UniProtKB/TrEMBL annotation:
Its EC number is 6.3.2.9. One of its GO terms (molecular function) is UDP-N-acetylmuramoylalanine-D-glutamate ligase activity. It comes from Flavobacterium luteum. It is an enzyme of class 6 (ligase). GO terms for cellular component: cytoplasm. The keyword Ligase applies. Keywords: ATP-binding, Cell cycle, Cell division, Cell shape, Cell wall biogenesis/degradation, Cytoplasm, Ligase, Nucleotide-binding, Peptidoglycan synthesis. SUPFAM superfamilies: MurCD N-terminal domain, MurD-like peptide ligases, catalytic domain, MurD-like peptide ligases, peptide-binding domain. This is UDP-N-acetylmuramoylalanine--D-glutamate ligase. InterPro entries: Mur-like_cat_sf, Mur_ligase_C, Mur_ligase_C_dom_sf, Mur_ligase_cen, MurD.
Length: 444
């Protein structure tokens, strides 16, 4: 019996444990932190051996294979020891792939992947396909493969998940864009992070597809220097393309398999240039799967968007409050600021992952009237923008941030939470940060 050791007792870890046990592995789950009660109950119910707040080496280093949760870095002591013993360390996606015949649509990128994933799922689901949603979202891929029988999976894949992939390939891959993110996990080398993203296409064959942003310089450069066997489907908001998706005046045109799909952009529910790209990527998948034009059109016009991503919360005294807590890097904050068309009070800050704020300068100059720093260490933000805006305030709670913003904002302004940073200094995660923002706004 092969021994499967799982590091991390969260959603992906517990899902993998259930599938591993079902497939005849001897399973052990080890979490250096605490395991949530609901997950403990599931593990105990299935008779799966687990431990928390420790890693017992003699129970781990006898593994045939190790699945590590994406949040655990390769540099952690236990992972180093596992790798020294030449035990393979893989991600959930890699472990699960051989156990399903379903077609997978794998979606990665520094920004836009959640929206693109949700929108793609929405279109496929509306078309009546038997489709699951997994990866970084919702119920773990492993759990679903153990308990459901889907024909398709739409998977949101982070670079951390792709780092643990060696044989897996999506039938259709989407690369939304690449900008510096998580550099702390990649030795502060941008090229390592770029290489990590492109693992999504490394095993693809001539029968597979890679849908990508043709306006993204990093992606274009990589494609010039490297090859993939996949069929390439580009999308662009800047120029017309013979094949793929592009904007033509106020229409989105998608040309795939000699078949054209055209839709007026005003009927697409998502707003903003970056969202047009997300819509193009999702529509390209729908066209490859030969979904009816009517279904695509309907889905694009009734899609609700993603929580914590440019989510309009409330208008109070004619000031619009916007929750963009999911903006955990500079590039995401760039999209948010770029979409603002009124004077903006910007709430920013958190755990900096090696951010370079210079690319936001022009936008801050043009759109931001005040900055509220919400983080434990705001020095970099203050150094970057101190001379650019008139008002710069530091706070250390969401309530204070929102109250200060209300004082500064005037009729017709907007208050935007778009932190450009991770949330772990003051919050559990970006969802917690976004919920606290909405709660504080509702209490004004």
């Amino acid at each position: 019996m092969q021994r499967l050791v799982i590091l991390g007792g969260g959603e992906s870890g517990v899902g993998t444990a259930i599938l591993g046990q079902q497939k005849g592995y001897d399973v052990f789950v080890s979490d250096f932190g605490k395991i949530k009660d609901n997950y403990k109950e599931v593990l105990t119910h299935h008779g799966i051996d687990w431990e928390e707040e420790t890693h017992t080496e003699n129970k781990i280093l006898n593994a045939d294979i190790v699945m590590k949760s994406p949040g655990i870095p390769d540099k952690s002591p236990i992972v180093k020891k596992i790798l020294e013993k030449k035990i393979p360390v893989i991600s959930e996606i890699e472990f699960v792939a051989p156990f399903t015949k379903a077609k997978t649509i794998g979606i990665t990128g520094s920004n836009g992947k959640t929206t693109t994933t949700m929108l793609t799922y929405h279109i496929l689901n509306s078309a009546g396909l038997n489709v699951g949603l997994a990866g970084n979202i919702g119920k773990s891929f492993a759990w679903q493969v153990a308990q459901e029988q889907f024909d398709y999976y739409v998977l949101e894949l982070s670079s951390f998940q792709l780092d643990g992939v060696f044989k897996y390939k999506p039938d259709i891959a989407i690369l939304t864009n690449i900008s510096p993110d998580h550099l702390d996990r990649y030795d502060y080398k941008y090229e390592n992070y770029i290489a990590s993203k492109f693992r999504i296409t490394m095993n693809q064959t001539e029968n597979d597809y890679l849908i990508y942003d043709a306006d993204d310089e990093v992606i274009s450069e990589w494609l010039k220097k490297n090859t993939t066997k996949a069929q390439l489907i580009p999308f662009s908001v800047n120029r017309k393309l013979e094949k793929g998706a592009f904007l033509n005046n106020n229409k989105m045109e998608v040309n795939i398999n000699e078949e054209e799909f055209i839709m007026e952009t005003e009927y697409i529910a998502l707003e903003g240039k970056h969202n047009m790209k997300n819509a193009m990527a999702a529509t390209s998948v729908a066209k490859l799967l030969q979904i009816r034009k009517e279904t695509i059109r309907e889905s694009l016009s009734n899609f609700q968007g993603v929580e914590h991503r440019l989510e309009k919360v409330l208008k109070i005294q004619n000031v619009q409050y916007i929750n963009d807590s999911k903006a955990t890097n500079v590039n995401a904050a760039f999209f948010a600021l770029d979409s603002m068309n009124v004077p903006t009070v910007w709430i920013v800050g958190g755990v900096d992952k090696g951010n370079d704020y210079s690319e936001l300068m022009a936008l801050v100059h043009e759109k931001v009237k005040a900055i509220i720093c919400l983080g434990v260490d705001n020095k970099k933000i203050i150094d970057a923008f101190g001379n650019v805006v008139d008002v710069m305030i530091e706070v250390d709670s969401m309530n204070d941030a929102v109250k200060m913003a209300q004082r500064i904002a005037e009729r017709g302004d907007a208050v935007l939470l778009s932190p450009a940073c991770a949330s772990f200094d003051l919050f559990e995660n970006y969802e917690d940060r976004g919920r606290q923002f909405k709660e504080a706004v509702r209490n004004l």
